[in-house]
């Protein structure tokens, strides 16, 4: 079994674990952290967040962010899997 990575969402320091083959969004929702989302396939950008630390891998070749946005740290948690511990500056959380 692959080691779990620690994912921290700012603001608020919400922490949860994610497996390397699990998207950041799926791990957040499994942990009860209501990260904003809609399409879950990398096209709507509802979950757009900023990667503050760590490394991710995309499960699709062309997620809905440009190369420039990627270079600036933009990340789509719905199609991003962790390759290390990750810190995200998340958009608004949707607490029910």
From TrEMBL:
<keyword id="KW-0479">Metal-binding</keyword>
<keyword id="KW-0249">Electron transport</keyword>
<comment type="similarity">
    <text>Belongs to the 2Fe2S plant-type ferredoxin family.</text>
</comment>
<keyword id="KW-0813">Transport</keyword>
<dbReference type="InterPro" id="IPR036010">
    <property type="entry name" value="2Fe-2S_ferredoxin-like_sf"/>
</dbReference>
<keyword id="KW-0408">Iron</keyword>
<protein>
    <submittedName>
        <fullName>2Fe-2S iron-sulfur cluster-binding protein</fullName>
    </submittedName>
</protein>
<keyword id="KW-0001">2Fe-2S</keyword>
<dbReference type="InterPro" id="IPR001041">
    <property type="entry name" value="2Fe-2S_ferredoxin-type"/>
</dbReference>
<dbReference type="Pfam" id="PF00111">
    <property type="entry name" value="Fer2"/>
</dbReference>
<feature type="domain" description="2Fe-2S ferredoxin-type">
    <location>
        <begin position="5"/>
        <end position="94"/>
    </location>
</feature>
<keyword id="KW-0411">Iron-sulfur</keyword>
<dbReference type="InterPro" id="IPR012675">
    <property type="entry name" value="Beta-grasp_dom_sf"/>
</dbReference>
């Amino acid at each position: 079994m692959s080691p779990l990575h620690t994912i921290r969402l700012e603001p608020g320091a919400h922490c949860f674990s994610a497996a390397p083959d699990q998207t950041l969004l799926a791990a957040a929702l499994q942990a009860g952290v209501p990260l904003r989302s809609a399409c879950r396939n990398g096209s709507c950008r509802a979950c757009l967040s900023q990667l503050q630390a760590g490394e991710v891998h995309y499960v699709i070749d062309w997620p809905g962010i440009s190369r420039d946005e990627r270079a600036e740290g933009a990340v789509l948690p719905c199609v991003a899997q962790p390759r290390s511990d990750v810190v995200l500056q998340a958009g608004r959380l949707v607490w029910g």
